[in-house]
């Protein structure tokens, strides 16, 4: 995988944030959606820090894909497992 340029990183950060906010909004869980809106700044900081890992973007993309696939398959157990793995990977 090529090394991301600074502008790629900026775009990735925005798309990563939008992914998380979209998942929360599509959950139809108003509390979750509202919570993510309130902690948006902290979430952006975590995303920024995840890019300090040499493979942060690639890993986040792979994990996002697994989350999305489980949701598309209406597999709550698979989605839960993929989300927990993602959170564990990028916790600071």
Layout of SSEs?
Layout: H1 6-26, H2 30-38, H3 40-50, H4 56-72, H5 76-90
Structure in words:
The structure is a single chain. By secondary structure, the chain is mostly helical. The protein has one domain. 79% of the residues lie in helices and 0% in strands. The longest helix is centred in the first third of the chain and has 21 residues, at 6-26.
Q: What low-confidence regions span 5 or more consecutive residues with pLDDT below 50?
A: none
Q: Return the domain count.
A: 1
How confident is the prediction overall: mean pLDDT? 88
Sheet-strand content, in percent, reads under 5%
Number of strands: 0
How helix-rich are the residues, as a percent range? over 70%
- Give the radius of gyration: 13 Å
Structural class: mainly alpha
Number of helices: 5
CA(first)-CA(last) distance: 24 Å
Task: Give a summary of the structure in a few sentences.
The protein has 92 residues and is mainly alpha-helical.
């Amino acid at each position: 995988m090529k090394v991301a340029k600074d502008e790629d990183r900026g775009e990735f950060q925005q798309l990563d944030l939008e992914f998380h906010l979209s998942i929360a909004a599509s959950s139809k869980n108003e509390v979750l959606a509202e919570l993510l809106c309130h902690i948006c700044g902290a979430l952006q900081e975590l995303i920024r820090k995840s890019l300090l890992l040499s493979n942060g973007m690639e890993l986040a993309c792979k994990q996002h894909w697994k989350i999305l696939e489980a949701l598309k398959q209406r597999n709550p157990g698979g989605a839960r497992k993929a989300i927990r793995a993602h959170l564990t990977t990028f916790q600071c």
